[in-house]
Specification:
By secondary structure, the chain is α/β, with parallel strands linked by helices. 33% of the residues lie in helices and 23% in strands. The protein folds into 2 domains: 9-130, Rossmann fold (3-Layer(aba) Sandwich), CATH 3.40.50; 135-315 and 348-365, Dihydrodipicolinate Reductase, domain 2 (2-Layer Sandwich).
Length: 371
């Protein structure tokens, strides 16, 4: 197990884009046990902008400077997907605790290498599966695990985004992103489905690309996208439960003030529960001949025990994400492994890879999810 950290946890952000600005840095600044010690980004202009915004003096365009710095305890990796494996392995071998954005890498083989490297280095490793920390998802997990819904039978997930059809930059190319909606959005839902219901044993999947994305937002041109902007899966869990997932970034009319549409549902023998992204502080509950109705998430599920977040402050669809960093810092301070760790990232990646294999080969793919 990782050794408990005494004193402030000095964290460096590697990748100063929107996800760090919106989620990771506010989470760090809320936690009195943590200190934002340095930032790294290859874009010097963005680096200067973030240094001013975040109030940090130590900056670099080279991640190796961060990895080699003895005054850094941990790193948050929010860089393009194809860079994750190299940065994470270097940081872990240098004794840094690591939290990495999803997908952890371009395929399950790379993720396994990241997991084994971090495990061998005995550092905390965490996959940024943010939605596990939504209050209604935490409560849904309790309802499933406690048996309140009876025997789980079906899982169903929709994640429909209404995004522009202009270029995504590196995100729209397979060699740098690995995949599109499947790796960026649906992989979250694969993870929390397995967290709720256990390992998936078999998958049938499909992918499609509708938007060429040959225009940049500023009116320029670029090569067309070669990744999916729609993905769908049908799965069978080892428990006997079934699952259906669908995701797209091209669902016109599902913008919902920037939160877009999400619906994750578990149907059990005694009842059903629904999580919705735009209203994460409420859950829909129903039972036989009693229609789904909104119910407030009980206070004990609104945030992890000890989280410094004020549950009454901020936009509900945003602020629960700060608890991701709280869990990372807590694991470092307490000398334990974080949840979700790289192991959970690897398991979800195996399912995502099997989805691509299923579609390419037009068949069901059986899985053996690793322990």
């Amino acid at each position: 197990m990782p050794k408990a950290k005494q004193g402030p946890v000095r964290v460096a952000i590697i990748g100063a884009g929107q996800v760090s600005d919106f989620h990771h840095v506010p989470g760090l600044k809320l936690d009195p046990r943590a200190e934002l010690a340095a930032i790294c980004d290859p874009n010097a202009d963005l680096l200067a902008q973030r240094a001013a915004q975040w109030g940090i003096a130590k900056t670099t365009t080279d991640y190796k400077t961060i990895v080699e710095d003895p005054n850094i305890d941990a790193v948050v990796i929010a860089t393009p997907n194809f860079t994750h494996q190299e940065i994470s392995n270097a940081a872990a071998r240098a004794g840094k605790h690591v939290m990495c954005e999803k997908p952890l890498a371009l395929n399950a083989g790379e993720v396994r290498d990241m997991y084994e490297t971090a495990k061998a280095a005995d550092v905390v490793h965490m996959t940024a599966f943010t939605y596990r920390f939504a209050p209604s998802m935490r409560y849904m997990r309790h309802l499933v695990k406690s048996g309140a819904l009876g025997t789980p039978r079906h899982f169903r997930s929709q994640r429909f985004l209404d995004l522009p059809e202009t270029s995504w930059g590196w995100r729209q190319y397979k060699e740098k992103a690995g995949a599109g909606d499947l790796f960026d959005m649906t992989i979250h839902r694969i993870d929390f489905a397995m967290d709720l219901l256990g390992p998936i044993k078999s998958i049938s999947g499909a992918l499609a690309t509708f938007a060429e994305r040959t225009s940049t937002p500023d009116g320029g041109t670029c090569p067309p996208s070669d990744i999916d902007d729609w993905s769908a899966l049908i799965g069978q869990f080892e428990s006997g439960c079934t699952g259906v997932w669908e995701g797209t970034v091209l669902a016109k009319g599902h913008y919902k003030d920037g939160t877009h549409h999400e619906w994750a549902e578990v149907n059990g023998s005694e009842g059903s529960a629904v999580y919705r992204m735009h209203d994460p502080n409420h859950i829909l509950l129903g039972s036989h001949k009693h229609d789904l109705q909104p119910v407030s998430v009980p206070a004990e599920f609104m945030k992890p025990v000890g989280s410094p977040r004020d549950i009454h402050a901020g936009l509900p669809s945003t602020v629960f994400r700060y608890d991701l960093v709280f869990e990372f810092v807590s694991a470092i301070v307490e000398g334990r492994q974080a949840l979700p760790s790289y192991l959970e990232g690897w398991r979800a990646q195996m399912v995502a890879d099997a989805t691509i294999q299923s579609f390419d080969q037009r068949r069901w793919v059986d899985l053996k999810i690793e322990d």
